[in-house]
Amino acid sequence: MLYSPLFLFAVLLIPAWGAADGGSSSHHKPRPSNDPPLPPSQDCWYEQPADIDEYKPGELIRSRQIENELKPFIELGGDVSVHSVYQYLFRTTDSLGNAVAAVTTLIIPYNSDPSKLLVYLVPYDSANPDCSPSYALRSEAETGSIPGNGIPQVSVELPFIAAALNQGMWVTVPDYEGLEAQFTAGLQAGYATLDSVRVVLKEGRKIGLTKHVRYAMWGYSGGALAGGWAAELQQSYAPELRFAGAALGGNIVNTTSVIETLNGGPSAYLGFRGLYGLAKAYPNLTDWLNENLLPDKQEEFFRIATSCQFDGQGGEYQDLFSYSATAERSLYEPVPSSVLRWSGWLGFRGTPKMPLYVYKAVADEIAPVENTDELVQKYCSNGATVEYYRNLVGTHFTEVITGSVNALGWISDRLAGVTVSNKGSCNTEDVAISEINPSIVPRIGVALYFILGSTLGDELGPP
Ligand SMILES: *[C@@H]1O[C@H](CO)[C@@H](O)[C@H](O)[C@H]1NC(C)=O
Ligand SMILES: *[C@@H]1O[C@H](CO)[C@@H](O)[C@H](O)[C@H]1NC(C)=O
C-alpha cells in the first residue's frame, strides 16, 4: 500500500536528524543500551500510580530520558539520532471522566529551535498498548516481541516527524489512546492530547523550551481523530492552552460512518480495532460485545482487533458484522449507537478556537468526505478559522503524502508566528495535487522528498 522498494531504499539517505543549516553541534553519543526496551505491557515505568486521583490533569507522574536514537523507517539499519528524547507519564482523564495516566515522548533534534513545538499525532490505529508510539519509536523496540507483529505504523510516520525535526522543531508524540489503547475513544484521545501538551510545556521548560513557545498539532487519519477531539475540547478542558493551529487530514469525523465505509474492504481490520478500543473505554459496550460476539468467532475477532498497523494479522476484506449476533444492525443497537454518538462523532463538543488547516481526498475510501464537508460548514457557521483543501486527486492513502507538504508548510508558518490571512473566516478550495513538487526540497529536505516521491511511485532522480 504505502510501500515500494524505492521507499525502503530511500531510507539509507538519512544520516541524522537536526536543523539542516546547523554548524558544529555538541554530539551526544547514543547511550549504550544493552537490552531492548520492554513493550509497554511489560514495562513497569508505564504503571499508573494507585493515587492517580491526587494528580491534576497534565501533571507529571514520572519522567525518563531514553536513548537518543529512533527507529529507522523500516528494519534496514542506519542510525537516526537526535539530540535527546524524554518520556513523560502524566495524569489525564478517560472517557468516563476518571483520572488515568498516559505517556508522551518528547524528541529534540540537533540545533533545535526551542520556541517551536509540534504535537505530532501518529495514526497508530491499534487497540494494543504494545503498538503505542512511545515504544514503536524506540530504536531497539523489538517488533518481533509482539506476537506476529511486523511494521508498526510509526515507521510510516517517521518521515513526517523527521521533516519537522529537520526544521528544528521540538516534537512531542503522545500515546493519546491512553495506557489501554482505547482506539477511537474520542474523549480519551482529546483529553490525553491536551494533557500531553500541558506536561511538555511545564517539563520542557526545565530542559530549555522557551517560555513563549508556539505550539501546533498535526495529525492524519487516526491522528486527526485525536487532534479533532482535542481541538473541540480545548476551550472547555484546557482553556489556558493557546495553540497556534492544527493541521488535520484524512479526518475521522464520524466513526459509525467510517466503520461502515471500510467494512469488507482492504482496511476492514480497522473496524475490529475501533470497536474493541471503544469497548475498553465503555463497560456497557464491553458487556454488549461479550453478549453478542458469536462464540466460534471470538478468537479471530480479538486476534484482528489487537493487531498493530500493517502487521499482516488479517482482517482485510472481513465483514465485521458477520462476527456479531446482531449482524448489520450492530452499530444501531442501543448500546453501540449511544457510545458512538457520545464518543465517536465530532461536531458536538465545541467550536475550535485555534486556526485549522484541513486536507482531504474527495475520494477518501476510509472516511467519507461529506462528513468533513459538514463539519467544516458547522465550524465555519460558528466563527471558526478554517482553511479546507479538498483534493480531487487520490485516496486516503495517497493524500497522507500529497497533502503533507502543504500541511507542514502551514504549520511552519504558524510556529514562525505568521498570522493566518483568514482569521474568523473559512476558505474552502478544491485542489488537484497528485505529486510532490521538487520546489519543496528546501522546505522538507532532499531525503524526505525522495521518500515521499518514491512512496507515491515516482521515479528517483535529481529534483
Ligand atoms: C454518522 O454516521 C451515521 C452512519 O452513516 C449516520 O447515521 C449519522 O447520522 C452520522 N452522524 C452525523 C452527526 O452526521
Ligand atoms: C453506555 O455508557 C455510556 C457512558 O456511560 C452512556 O453515555 C450510554 O448512554 C450508555 N448506553 C446505554 C444504552 O445505556
Automatic annotation (TrEMBL):
Domain of life: Eukaryota
One GO biological process term: lipid catabolic process
SUPFAM superfamilies (UniProt xref): alpha/beta-Hydrolases
Record carries keyword Signal: yes
Record Pfam families: LIP
InterPro entries found in the cross-reference section: AB_hydrolase_fold, Lipase_secreted
Signal peptide: 1-18
Gene Ontology molecular function, alphabetical: triacylglycerol lipase activity
Spans traversing the lipid bilayer: none
Hydrolase found in the keyword field: yes
Alphabetically ordered keywords of this record: Hydrolase, Signal
Region (Disordered): 24-43
Family membership noted in the UniProt record: Belongs to the AB hydrolase superfamily. Lipase family.
Name of protein: Uncharacterized protein
